[in-house]
């Protein structure tokens, strides 16, 4: 069967039988009530399988590689009404005992701590505990003096 197409300018074009057959097939496929649903379901299943293959094995590969489980510590701040030990965090106890060996506070001034965590007197007392190298004396030895002076 041949189907005639009329363009907007008024020229009539005759379609080949192959084209008309394709047009009929696409019309019949569009009328199928299960065509869109099955394709959508197939896409969701494919996406789910892809996600499982991509991300489902990451954690298990890490566990098998190291053979370690994450330790569970009884942290005192894990409860609903619990909180951090504010007095130790204000004293910089964690920083002084753990972090200071690798990470310096050379870019943080003690005056920046005033108002947020400390009063001016507390910041001065904290700075007085720190000893810095002032430079060599007459004998050529480095002189250590408190930071607050």
Automatic annotation (TrEMBL):
InterPro entries: Cyt_c-like_dom_sf, Cyt_c1. The keyword Membrane applies. Binds 1 heme c group covalently per subunit. The keyword Transmembrane helix applies. Heme c binds at residues 99, 102-103. Keywords: Heme, Iron, Membrane, Metal-binding, Transmembrane, Transmembrane helix. Gene3D superfamilies: Cytochrome c-like domain. One of its GO terms (biological process) is mitochondrial electron transport, ubiquinol to cytochrome c. Pfam families: Cytochrom_C1. Its main location: membrane. One of its GO terms (molecular function) is metal ion binding. Transmembrane segments: none annotated. It is found in: Membrane. One of its GO terms (cellular component) is membrane. Its cofactor is heme c. PANTHER family: CYTOCHROME C1, CYTOCHROME C1, HEME PROTEIN, MITOCHONDRIAL. This is Cytochrome c1. It comes from Dillenia turbinata.
